[in-house]
Design brief:
heterodimer, A: 299 residues, alpha/beta, 9 helices, globular, B: six-stranded mixed sheet
């Protein structure tokens, strides 16, 4: 059971992207395929993030993943234990991962109820045979490979794609507020994980050897420049400007933050104007990925 | 003639997992009628394209000889599981992988234990090919392929089946109008989310029933945008490509709402 405290708090948030290539490059025993190397800058960025997370000693990790897409409502994993084999439908050659995770069901239920109170359509996922998506698994593995902290998994309702970006992200804002209220009510010490890539323009073919790093670079200069602009603003703590630019960034860089995790996390944290710690940046099949941390306790 | 039967069916799990809800039960009954027609056509192989098997890098083809498991839909998990056990025509699937370069498409074979089979493929297979007796070729929906390229893929797959002297049933899995209700509804009173989408669906169904290929080709681009056709109606492109655009009419075994989207079970007259 998670430790509790009088009033819960979000102690940190991480931008924690989920390219399965990072798991493949690391060669953990849970993943079937073996690599020679690959994406070290990002994997080492996660090593730094792991140390920070360890020091934070959270009760629970909450992860919002763009690869659990739901059309009707915002869903929450609501089964105490989930396990199985997750094969990435896009990159089955590099990600076939045997997972087992524990869910903080009480917190998931509270998030679900608070979301409904915010006027969102919310659902708990109670089916024990459910296959957890590879985005959730990759982010959780990369940030905490020990799998010893309970999690709450949130789906990505497709509202930013089905409605307008702005309308969809307004929903994610409310989801973030609901998440915060639930964490505070249940007295959890929580870390939020936004499982999002930045610029999402990507190459359409894989190299014959996926970890051939001589083939890895940003897909485009404009996408790279967008990523650096956003990261620099986040490093300065200029959150307001980031969110002013967000719709344009999404349009011009095809940024995956459109799916909502980034907005959800910032809304839950109260859009803090604090400098982010950049643990590292790198590309994966051309997409831009940053591992970043907002430590709210240290702020 | 390689193609002996052709169908469009919806990929929603609702008729399968919740057929006791009358609007969805009608679709399930229509799917069973289509399944009976498919079996009567005595195909050697089913060429199936599902809009829900998403690919972004290459064109993917299932090449594992047998795939089986238990799938839970990402959205409708509360209604239970979708079991599946499929037999794959690996010889034909591998021929497709090898040949798509001729139409400018890079393909990849998928042969992995535990690979997630999409809801649409499973639902269509369970209704049209119960017990998985008929071998299948499963093709993915590459998001970067347009209607015309998907037509070419369907045509190529049918041509390769003909080369292997196989009788083919071709199946496109996807919705007609893709707009849906986002919030909780009284499922017993499910309906197409807006009258304009209902009109569009009926217009396309009428063109299919009339065997009006030219009219259909002219209407489909507008249907894709104004009718919010599921994935640009690329599952239709797959079937039309395999048929070489030739059909004399169609029977609509069922049409109705699937949480607001348009679900139709269509059998082409060849």
């Amino acid at each position: 059971m998670p430790r509790t405290q009088k009033k819960g708090a979000i102690v940190a948030g991480f931008l924690a992207p989920h390219p399965p290539h990072l798991v493949y490059g690391e060669n953990p025993p849970q993943n079937e395929p073996r690599s020679q190397c690959g994406w070290e800058q990002l994997r080492w960025a996660y090593e730094r993030a792991r140390k920070s997370l360890d020091a934070l000693k959270p009760d629970v990790l909450l992860v919002h993943s763009p690869h659990w897409i739901t059309q009707q409502g915002h869903h929450f994993l609501g089964v105490p234990q989930l396990s199985g084999k997750s094969v990435d439908p896009i990159f089955p050659n590099i990600f076939r991962y045997t997972f087992a995770l524990n869910v903080d069901v009480a917190l998931a239920e509270a998030c679900c109820a608070e979301g409904a109170r915010q006027g969102l359509y919310t659902k708990l996922m109670r089916n024990p045979h459910f296959r957890v998506d590879y985005g959730t698994i990759t982010t959780l593995h990369m940030i905490r490979p020990q799998w010893d902290i309970p999690v709450v998994g949130l789906s990505a309702n497709n509202s930013p794609y089905y409605l307008s970006t702005e309308e969809g992200l307004q929903e994610m804002d409310r989801l973030g507020q609901a998440t915060r209220a639930a964490i505070e009510k249940l007295g959890r010490r929580a870390v939020l994980l936004a499982s999002n890539t930045l610029c999402h323009w990507h190459f359409h073919e894989e190299p014959a050897l996926p970890e051939d790093m001589s083939q890895e670079h940003p897909h485009s200069l404009s996408g790279y420049q967008w990523d650096m602009r956003i990261i620099d603003l986040l490093r300065q703590g200029n959150t307001k400007e980031v969110f002013r630019l967000l719709p344009q960034f999404i349009d011009e860089a095809f940024a995956e933050v459109k799916s909502g995790a980034f907005t959800w996390m910032f809304a839950a944290m109260g859009y803090p104007e604090i400098p982010a710690e950049l643990h590292g940046y790198g590309t994966v099949i051309g997409t831009g990925n940053a591992v970043m941390e907002w430590n709210l306790e240290g702020a | 003639m390689a193609v002996v039967s052709a169908f469009l069916v919806p990929g929603s799990p609702l008729p399968y997992v919740k057929r006791d809800n009358p609007p969805w039960g009608k679709i399930a009954t229509g799917l069973e009628r289509a399944g009976a027609a498919l079996v009567r056509s005595e195909p050697d192989v089913i060429l199936l394209y599902s809009t829900q098997w998403i690919a972004v890098l290459d064109q993917l083809w299932q090449t594992r000889p047998r795939v089986s498991g238990l799938h839970v839909d990402e959205n409708w998990h509360e209604y239970g599981e979708l079991p599946y056990a499929l037999k794959i025509d690996t010889r034909l699937a591998k021929a497709c992988v090898s040949a798509t370069g001729t139409i400018g498409v890079k393909s990849k074979a998928v042969n992995y234990d535990g690979f997630p089979i999409d809801t649409g493929t499973i639902v269509a297979a369970n209704f049209l090919n119960p017990g998985g007796k008929i071998p299948m070729v499963l093709a993915s929906n590459n998001l970067y392929h347009d209607f015309a390229l998907t037509e070419k893929l369907g045509r190529l797959a049918a041509r390769l089946a003909r080369k292997q002297k196989k009788r083919v049933a071709v199946v496109g899995v996807g919705n007609f109008s893709g707009a849906f209700f986002r919030h909780e509804i009284d499922i017993a009173k499910d309906k197409i989310v807006a009258p304009k989408y209902d009109r569009w669906n009926k217009k396309i169904l009428a063109l299919l029933q009339a065997g009006d290929g030219k009219g259909l080709s002219a209407a489909l681009p507008e249907f894709a945008t104004k009718g919010k056709a599921d994935m640009g109606f690329k599952h239709g492109a797959w079937v039309l490509g395999a048929l070489g655009g030739k059909f004399t009419g169609a029977q609509v075994h069922a049409y109705g709402p699937l949480y607001g989207s348009g679900g139709a079970v269509v059998e082409f007259d060849l």
